[in-house]
Design a protein that fits this description.
With about 400 residues, the chain is α/β, with parallel strands linked by helices. Helix content is about 40%, strand content about 10%. The protein contains 14 helices and twelve strands. Strands 1, 4, 5, 6, 7, 8, 9, 10, 11 and 12 form a ten-stranded mixed beta sheet that branches. The chain is globular and about 60 Å long. About 45% of the residues are buried.
C-alpha cells in the first residue's frame, strides 16, 4: 500500500500553488502527533524567565507594541507563556483536538536535575496528565544530546552512557509506557530519539536488545540497526527536497514517521547562540501545505507535525500574531476532506480555546474557575454553540 501511495509524492511536490481545498484520496486514518516543547519558563507563573525565552540575549521584561522581547522572530498569540501553566496546556490541547491533531510527541530530557532537565520533566508530567484528561495520546522523544553534558559535568562516565539511557527507558516503561494514552504500534510503545551526539548507533542497537520492554523505536533521519524505522526532521540545507529524500529511504523500512512543518527560521544568530541555519521560508503557507500533502500521501501510520511550539527555530504551528490560525485551519480542512476529524469543528470553532484562555486569565473566584471548567468540557466534547453562548455571557 505504501509503495503505491508513494508514487503520488513526486506529483504532489510540484503542486505547491494548489488551492487549500484540493481533494486528496482518503486512506486509513493516520495518527497525527505534534512535536511539543515543554521547556518554557515565564513570569508570573515562575519566579524568573527561562532560557528558551531569553537565550541570555533577550529581555522579556521589555515590552514594545504589546509584545515582550523574546527569543523568536514570531510571537505567540497567547504571549510568552510558562509550560507548567494549566490554562496554557488546556488551550494548546483544545486547539489540537479541534484541528485534527491526535496528541503530542514530547521532547524529554530525562530524569536528572542538570540544567533545566528537572523542570522539563515536571512539565512533561503535567502535560501527560492533561493529554489523558482530554482523551488524547502521547509519545516520548528522548533527547540524545542530554548525556554529553552529564559526562562533561561528571554525573556519569563515558562508559556509563548506555546503562544510564537504559535506566531512563526502564523508568519510562514502568511509569509512562503503560498509561492508556501512550502511543503504540503493533502493541509496542513508540519511542523516538532526537540527535546523534549522545549514543552511537552501535550503542543504541545494543541498548534496544536489552530493554525490558520491546519498543517501536524510531531514530532521527535514518534507521539505526534494531530500529523500527526513522522519523524525519527539517534539514535546512536540503529544504523541501528533504521530504523526497526521506520517502525514498523509508521504502526499505517497516515504518517511518514523515515530518510536516511550516518553515524553519531560527533566531540563533540574533541570540549569539551560533551562526544560525539556512532558512526554509514560509512561502505564504505553501511550505506547510506541501509537506502536509506529502506526508499524508505516504501512507504511514504516524505523521509528526514539526513543531507545535519551537519558537526559537520558528517551526511552530501554534497560533501566532504573524500567521494566526492559518496552519491549523489547513490541517483541519485536509482532515475533514479525508473524513478524519473526530469533532465536527470549523475554522470559527478554533477561536473558542483562545476566548476561554482570556476568561481564565480574568477569573477571580472559584465560581469563575468552575464556570470555565464547564466550558472547556463543552469545547472538548464538540458542543461549540453551547460553549460560544457561555463565553458570551
Amino acid at each position: 500500500m505504501r509503495t503505491i501511495a508513494l508514487v503520488l509524492i513526486a506529483f504532489l511536490s510540484f503542486h505547491m500553488n494548489a488551492p487549500a481545498d484540493e481533494p486528496l484520496e482518503c486512506r486509513d486514518r493516520p495518527l497525527v502527533l505534534a512535536h511539543y516543547m515543554p521547556w518554557y519558563v515565564a513570569k508570573p507563573v515562575s519566579p524568573q524567565w527561562g532560557w528558551h525565552w531569553t537565550m541570555n540575549r533577550f529581555d522579556p521584561e521589555t515590552i514594545n507594541d504589546g509584545r515582550r522581547d523574546v527569543a523568536s522572530h514570531h510571537y505567540p498569540l497567547a504571549g510568552a507563556y510558562d509550560s507548567s501553566d494549566p490554562s496554557i496546556l488546556e488551550y494548546h490541547l483544545l486547539l489540537m483536538k479541534l484541528c485534527g491533531i491526535d496528541g503530542v510527541i514530547v521532547d524529554w530530557y530525562g530524569l536528572t536535575d542538570l540544567s533545566d532537565y528537572a523542570v522539563l520533566h515536571r512539565n512533561t508530567q503535567r502535560l501527560i496528565d492533561a493529554v489523558e484528561r482530554m482523551e488524547m495520546q502521547f509519545a516520548i522523544c528522548y533527547e540524545d544530546q542530554t548525556v554529553t553534558p552529564l559526562v562533561k559535568e561528571g554525573r556519569i562516565s563515558a562508559d556509563q552512557i548506555e546503562q544510564h539511557v537504559a535506566t531512563e527507558i526502564d523508568w519510562l516503561a514502568e511509569n509512562w509506557f503503560m498509561r492508556p494514552g501512550y502511543v503504540r504500534l503493533d502493541g509496542k510503545p513508540v519511542l523516538l530519539s532526537f540527535g546523534n551526539t549522545g549514543l552511537s548507533g552501535p550503542q543504541w542497537t545494543s541498548l534496544l536488545k536489552h530493554t525490558r520492554t520491546p519498543l517501536a523505536y524510531f531514530s532521527e533521519h535514518t534507521r539505526r540497526d534494531g530500529a523500527t524505522g526513522a522519523f524525519d526532521w527539517p534539514i535546512p540545507d536540503e529544504g523541501l527536497l528533504r521530504s523526497e529524500h526521506f520517502d525514498r529511504a523509508s521504502l526499505r523500512w517497516p515504518d517511518s514517521i514523515p515530518a510536516v512543518y511550516p518553515r524553519f527560521v531560527d533566531v540563533y544568530a540574533k541570540a549569539n547562540v551560533n551562526d544560525g541555519y539556512v532558512r526554509i521560508g514560509d512561502n505564504d503557507g505553501k511550505t506547510f501545505l506541501t509537506t502536509m500533502r506529502h506526508a499524508f500521501a505516504s501512507g504511514t501510520r504516524i505523521i509528526q507535525l514539526v513543531t507545535w511550539n519551537d519558537w526559537g527555530e520558528g517551526t511552530c504551528i501554534e497560533p501566532s500574531v504573524e500567521f494566526g490560525y492559518r496552519d491549523l485551519e489547513a490541517l483541519q480542512n485536509l482532515r475533514r476532506r479525508r473524513s478524519e476529524l473526530k469533532l465536527n469543528a470549523g475554522a470559527e470553532d478554533l477561536r473558542l480555546p483562545w476566548q476561554l484562555l482570556l476568561q481564565r486569565r480574568k477569573a477571580s473566584s472559584q465560581k469563575d474557575v468552575q464556570r470555565w471548567d464547564a466550558v472547556a468540557v463543552m469545547i472538548g466534547n464538540g458542543e461549540f454553540e453551547n460553549a460560544r453562548k457561555a463565553l458570551a455571557q
